[in-house]
Request: fold
Amino acid sequence: ETGVTQSPTHLIKTRGQQVTLRCSSQSGHNTVSWYQQALGQGPQFIFQYYREEENGRGNFPPRFSGLQFPNYSSELNVNALELDDSALYLCASSPGGYEQFFGPGTRLTVL
Amino acid sequence: KQEVTQIPAALSVPEGENLVLNCSFTDSAIYNLQWFRQDPGKGLTSLLLIQSSQREQTSGRLNASLDKSSGRSTLYIAASQPGDSATYLCAVHSQAGTALIFGKGTTLSVSS
Reply:
């Protein structure tokens, strides 16, 4: 059974650019959540998707958007990148909202 | 608003010691609580999940307890090893299917 995978592993962008991060959920998991983890902090909830619909959102501006596809994989899009967007972005999948299983993360650096 | 606090922020112990990591939360109406391990720059590995109706969970050398009424959980690590060195994060689900709320973690260093 394949776990949660994320791509790319690392990414460097400049301020004002747009970025797309990808996540493949664990087999059989229909719920995907995205988190942002700044250095030295705990992860902060961005949003969650359940069966292709947004199912909850944290305190992040609209320039953070997402998609979930029929195979339950997901994308996180961030427009107009700011320096403070530099962080580890984590994707987690779960079989309907219970225990969450995290991927290895994507390290985004904004210069 | 649910807030999760972990104490201490960092801990250094010699190999073989038993240790306790603490987690407290402000709203006792939780659905479940999860403990994670994170190695530097890596993703999160789930260690233990405790449902709100449970008092504790055990996996190998790890034991996690939950006291909802006092808003506390502890993670007990027996006979610590250098390979246990990592950051340990506590997170609560306030309602099924929504966000995990995390503490900032406790960074553990076990010396040989």
Notes: Chain B touches chain A at residues 4, 32, 34, 36, 41-46, 49, 89, 91, 93, 96-105 (CB under 8 Å).
